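Bit of a strange request maybe. I'm writing a small parser for structure token strings and I need a real example to test against, not something I typed by hand. Could someone generate the tokens for this chain?
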Amino acid sequence: MNQTAEHIAIRASSLWHAYREGEWVLKDVSLTIPEGQISIIMGPSGTGKTTLLKLLAGILTPVRGRVEVFHQPIRRETQRRQFSLVGYIPQQLGLVRNLTALQNVLMGSLGRCGHGKALLGIFPRDEIARGREVLELMGISHKTNNKVYQLSGGERQRVAIARTLLQQPRVVIADEFVSDLDLPLALEILGRIRFAAEKEQMTFVLSMHRLGLAREFEQNVLTLNRGEITRGFPRETWPEPLAAEVLQ
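Reply from user aminoacidic:
Good idea to test on real output. This should exercise your parser:
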């Protein structure tokens, strides 16, 4: 598939990153993510997927290299200005347990509403209406007023996605956020993401290590292994349990 420059959502060029000098987590990683596509970054646990996603989201700054999102340089120093461009869902989701599903989703509108009113729980009516819409889009509108600690793992995943959708970014980056769910539920949530991507015209970048979840996105898979990235998921580079999962 030809990727013209105007249709590239993310471009990473020669990324190197280490947390300790000389111990490279990523080594000369370059990639492009097409606009409007769901791309999967796979690899064994501990191979650097979280580091790569944080670099793409601007949470970390690479030791070397450059990241652009829609031709805008992305780095930690400009993270606040990137709020409407890139949404990030961490592996632990970052939800507030004592707030309701809707209250958590409304946190996605902070960039438009400001933190002062939000701390008082004051949000414009149109933001509240939009928050209810994205909860419905994720199939969890019936839990709008339930507090997060009352929700199941799958329901929390949906709230986290809905919160990011309310942020209205052009790119959503999510780190292993379905890794703890059973396969049928994880596939259902990925289906919701596919629908949201089409409806909201967003680009999604998802990391995962479970091969069975990536089958529907086989053409859009990038494998990260030993700090280097390749297109597709070559089984011969993975530990045996992971290689077997693709056959399930």
